[in-house]
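Complex 325.
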Amino acid sequence: MQLYEDLLELVGNTPLVRLKTGIPENGPRVYVKLEFLNPTGSVKDRMVLHVVRKAIQDGRIKPGDTVIDNTSGNTGSSIGMVAARYGLRAIVVTPEKTSQEKVDLIRSYGAEVIVTPTERAHDDPEGCYQVARRLAKEHGYFDIDQYNSQENVESHYIGTGPEIWEQTEGQLTHFVCGIGTGGTFSGTAKFLKEQNPEIQCIAVDPEGSVFTDYIRTKEVVEGYDYMVEGIGSDVVTDALYPDLVDEVITISDKDSFNRARLIARTEGICGGGSSGSVAVAIEQVASQLDSRALVIGVFADAGIRYLSKCFNDNWMRKHGYLTTT
Ligand SMILES: Cc1ncc(COP(=O)(O)O)c(C=O)c1O
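Predicted structure with pyridoxal-5'-phosphate bound:
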């Protein structure tokens, strides 16, 4: 019998699956880690479970207490799910641009959702980052603060990194991962480089995010709006360890969305828009490599979360993203 008493046992241990789109015949072997197979359908289950479980174990929170964070959506569902399992109250603050499916999903786990204007900056009191911090402070809620949480990084250092190392028997040569808070990239890259410093760790950032310039020059420039969800930032975060980045690749919304759609149609792997970004970055990396290389990418969430966005022809057309490929 293979029976699970607790859904939380199913967080992590996601599979690596071959990706072929955009990879030349004699190019490297490429596999992607399907994080959408976590219980709520995204990589964020790992981080939220680790942070909340640790806080419960340390006595920092107990059943009935409230947890809060700001998120572009995926962390919200994870908070909802984990809070439901541990008898906690959950509040999720999210910007307007978050897809309706994601907001509905968060609510379906019983979490309260506060929607704030998308264009507000990180330090704007009306923006989702500051609203979450203020509510946490005023009411004494447990503040996950994923953008700066070192436990966010740690969840991937003890989970995603070792899993990839074991699944590839230490043979991977390149790791390609989107950066939102930076937690997935930093924790995984830290673990992998400790095993083999030769492993190249490549970060994927959307056009408009401040991370790319920061990684390259340590300067913080003004960001601008982009549509892809889950990656990029308008501020530098403590969960991103820039010194672990060997290369940062910047991808446009249009390329990301069309690639996510193409991979769903040709390979049956239906990731979100940011999986498209990662796949385009992998193609660029792969074009410089031969069959001796083993490239591992991260597909952070599922296309089903974006049925009203990049998987909707009218939405794609309206924003001028639709191409025939
Ligand atoms: C939708 C989505 N969520 C989360 C992540 C990972 O983000 P973080 O850097 O916050 O760990 C990514 C990265 O690709 C993503 O695309």
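Residues 14 and 37 are 6 Å apart (CA to CA).
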